Amino acid sequence: MRGKSRVALSVAALACFSFLSTVSGLSEPLMYTGLSNYTFPEEFIFGVATSAYQIEGGWNLGGKGESMWDTHLHKYPNYTVDGSNADIAADSYHLYKEDVKMVQYLGLTYYRLSMSWPRLLPRGTDNYISEDGKRYYRNVFEELLKANITPVVTLFHWDLPTPLMDLGGWNNPRVVDYFEDYARVAFELFGDVVKIWTTMNEPHQHCYNGYGGTQFAPALNAHGIGEYLCTHYMLLAHAKAYHLYDKVFRPKQNGQIGITLDSFWAEPKNASDPEDVAAAENYLQMHLGIYANPIFNGDYPDFVRQRVNNMSIQQGYTRSRLPYFSQEEVKMLKGSSDFFGLNHYASFLMSPCPGDEYNVPSMDHDTGVCLEQHPNWPKPGAVWFSVNPEGFRKLLNWVNDNYIKRNNMSIIVTENGLCDLGGLKDYARISYHKKYLYQLLLAKNLDNINIQGYFAWTLMDVFEWTDGYTSKFGLFHVDFESPERTRTPKLSAQLYKQIVKTRQIDFEFLSPESSKYQSNKL
Ligand code: GBH
Predict the structure, then answer these.
(1) What is the pTM of this model?
(2) Enclosing domain of residue 217
């Protein structure tokens, strides 16, 4: 009897053990508790990111020209949910020295920021360079270097000079050349101190929301054609700026230049339904592959090319709504980035849908995929924003499989951060960065993905585009009511500082559930 029951017990124990080991993988590290068993190596880059229009203000100071966001928000003051604009924003035009101190406070040695094209070239074109714009960016870069912080500079984070917008913006092929001219001025003036450039920030968000839809300025709503033209010419502009740097400036300036692309993670709504799996893949191809494939592999993805061509024919067009690259352009695009800059925030569930709810024609209708929120993913802020850390690792793998491995490239995460509605005790942000960074560590160590760095979005609360000042992403709070735009570190600033210093994630640190640290009782 005894013997029998002992056997029974050990069988049960074994069953239980193997159940556990398949669930948590036992050979894999424990999830989200204690100290992460992987660390960030010394050479791993930690930084924070901002963008010019979202922080600078000084919209008309020093002879700055208008950007299309200035113009749009002055013309339609109720465009943003709180009726705000970025005329002053966080006033970094005056307060950039404080910004640099905050980056330093976090213990960081990298800061990603963007240059305002119309601050440097008020007319958009290079026949007139603003002295004030020159001085401002020179001051910012020098201040960073004095603090031992490497600037990572984006040329275009959505604030197109209004005179170029009036010509059709990225729907006008000529703007490709004007971007190249702007890039030349920037490299000439600042290439001695700026050694890491990115050309464009998130062309997808810019083209899809601003040209295809109305969620962003210039709100052209030219769906079905506008977002594809914008995509096409932004890609060509990027490639031209890349080769200009590569041929003319790199030999003497010795820097790197890449692009920043973005994507949600596309999770099939039902992982065992092949149609949902295909829908998720189609979504990624249409939103991320459409940029990444030309740049890393040579042309638009097959799915995108075929789908838009077929839909265009069905809809009675003589030509595809998606323009073609010439063979020379394909060659110019392929390999035109020294690294893959990736911005990532949130995940959606994907399933096929006939697209009746979409405009016809449109990129959404062409994709034929519907997006939903998972009921269990936390939503601490804006409607689009859900927390699903595992989606980050899956996206890193998707990018790795399609572009990185085969080209021997590396990924730099150029933005990642949490949206909430405000407050200094931002535990949701603390938990978000711990978990997303942990997923990054797993991608690096278990999936062997070459990830070089991580930039938290964002240094401080900023003008969040259509959300105005209602959505918060900052590690520092900014008091937008005070003329001083007072900056105060949130709890998440302590967390990030700790991770950067220890190069490890301590899930107990600043966790309200843990009593390991005195500071947790704040
Ligand atoms: C990035 O864009 C930007 O680079 C940065 O400037 C921005 O501040 C940051 O992320 C945070 O948003 O479903 O109609 O409400 C992310 C772009 C823009 C993606 C808004 C989701 C929601 C559109 N995000 N969009 S809607």
Answers:
(1) 0.94
(2) 5-30+45-489
